[in-house]
Amino acid sequence: MAKSPEVKLAVFGRAGVGKSALVVRFLTRRFIWEYDPTLESTYRHQANIDDEVVTMEILDTAGQEDIQQKEGHVRWGDGFVIVYDITDRGSFEDVAPLRSLLEEVKRPKNVPLVLVGNKCDLDHVRQVGTEEGERLAAEMACAFYECSACANEGGAVAEAFHELCREVRRR
Ligand code: GDP
Ligand code: MG
Questions:
Q1: Ligand 1 binding pocket includes 61 (Cβ within 6 Å)
Q2: Which of 20, 52, 63, 69 sits 20 to 30 Å CA-CA off 10?
Q3: Which tens digit of pLDDT belongs to each residue from 83-97?
């Protein structure tokens, strides 16, 4: 039997945007309110995507690494989730530099990537419009999801991870 494909996914974004909450939501379908922000973890997860069993290794970065550590994470990964918090404009402004780092380290390959605007349950304190996220994703030629690790309506969290797996497999 053929070995099931394995993809390495790294989750990037400023500290506090909800990377750990998203990963835990994806893996357990639960929301955990407080998660050690300095913790970096990897997880293994299998999913059936388009009738194929895919094994994912997911690296949940802490978001406060120095540049060498970040570059190491980029070299390790096959695909990347870049997360910002829709209630924190600064976290959105961090996206473009992160994307540049990915491009630089992976050059000349192009980089499978999805953009996630998290915490969309907090619409009343939103600082980044949906259209702004869409526009940035279009510039980066990647898929875009607004989601909430705590509400997760419509299963957008899993959809983002699955789409990234497809993107990695297409390259
Ligand atoms: P990380 O530093 O990017 O890993 O962020 P965490 O996953 O530790 O989350 C940071 C804070 O944001 C925690 O207090 C979480 O409870 C909260 N949080 C994460 N995701 C959401 C979300 O979708 N909605 C809301 N309201 N809070 C969230
Ligand atoms: Mg974390």
A1: no
A2: 52
A3: 999 999 999 999 999
**From the CB of residue 70, how many other CB atoms can be counted at a distance below 10 Å?**
19
Q: How far apart are CA 134 and CA 148, in angstroms?
A: 16
* Per-residue model confidence as pLDDT tens digits over 3-16: 778 999 999 999 99
Given a contact cutoff of 8 angstroms between Cβ atoms, the answer to whether 9 and 160 are in contact is: no
- Residue 110: how many CB atoms within 10 A of its CB? 11
Q: How many Cβ atoms are within 10 Å of 8's Cβ, its own excluded?
A: 17
148 lines ligand 1 (CB under 6 A): yes
ipTM of the complex: 0.99
Query: Which residue lies with its CA nearest to atom 11 of ligand 1?
Result: 16
How far apart are the CA of 21 and the centre of ligand 1, in A? 6
Could you tell me the pTM of the whole model?
A: 0.95
